[in-house]
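Summary for the steering committee. One of the milestones for this cycle was to obtain a three-dimensional model of the protein with aspartic acid bound, which we needed before selecting residues for the alanine scan. The sequence and ligand used are listed below.
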Amino acid sequence: MATSMSLPKQMAIGMVLGVIAGVLAPMVGLDTGWFKPFGQIFITLIRMVVVPLVFFTLIAGAASVSDVRTLGRVATKTLLYYIFTTALAVTIGLLLANLIQPGFGLSLSTENLTAKEAKIPTLAKVLMDIIPLNPIDALAQGKMLQIIFFALIFGFGLSMIGEKGETLSKAIDGCAETMIKVTGIVMLYAPIGVFALMTVTVASHGLSVLLPLIKLVGVMYAASLCHVLLVYLPCVRFAGLTPGAFLRGLASPLIIAFSTCSSAAALSSNMLSVQKMGASKTVSSFSIPLGNTINMDGAAIYMGVAAIFAAEIYGIPMPIDKQLTILLLCVLASIGSMGVPGAALVMITMVFTQVGIPLEAVALVAGVDRIMDMARTTINVLGDATGALLVTRLEEGSLKSGEPEQA
Ligand code: ASP
């Protein structure tokens, strides 16, 4: 049945109805368990398109760059933007947490609570892990950094062989276009998926879970809002977009991020949306998948806020030098986080261990993790989109809107 309502609108309606159903379900004794598969189907569908979409669009992008130096410049600008904005994100989180003191005066029992510690990988291991031993294995396992690495080299190789590669180039362009279409088809299911996910989340995170930690959640959301207003919107304005056009253009990936708590799930939609808003294909097909893996401003904000919160609960003093250590650790831990639900909750153990916060604190915040994950995943996705638009503006002088068709 043809419908004239736009997809983001349908998704927004799905989200609102999901919240209403989630509030009502426990009241009328409805088991929301059977909504779960509908949400899971959505997450699986959108994750299904990620690897082939990124792989083909990135090869096509790299093959169209005649000069390797161009990509080097794009990569440098992108990485600088990622590190700088992530550091700003932690700083904003730390400042607000120090100001509002979300853990002050709270006494929460940590009896019987335990958490597993995440280890810091060495730099050598991180770098080695970018090179795939077997590219097919990397594709099969969805290892994004390895896929990016191989696709770039493959794309360059393809452009270097000139005429001999023309047929393959065309085929890969065709595959990329097809994957864009496939993503569009998959997204038709989004309103139902979003509805199911929101119903389950709201029904299982009622006020009784939320209330004791409401201040913590409030600080996290406030810091996220400040980050959008102080960092992203100025960047986007510089890129030539109004805040309204920017947020409207990203409605689909933002709703996906908010309802699935997985930035990996929002990747395809994010990439196509920024391209539609004028981000260059070369920049965005490289920077969005890369940012999806290493640029996590939302996770960084969360870790800063949670560290101060936990220190307050345990009465651990946090002088400025310790907070600077937290800043650095949060940037590293956010780079190491993956775009799946609850990833930052695992990575935060690395921060806590280093500054002497008991790991039980992790279990303490776990009850409201999903609610905070919704905000941080949305910010993670927004950060990548802002980066793609900003770097396009820096590279090309302006955005060229209108491509591609589906978002
Ligand atoms: N859920 C987040 C994401 O997918 C990661 C995290 O902060 O836990 O981006």
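Key point for the committee: The pocket of aspartic acid is lined by residues 261-263, 296, 298-299, 337, 339-344, 373, 376-377, 380 (CB under 6 Å).
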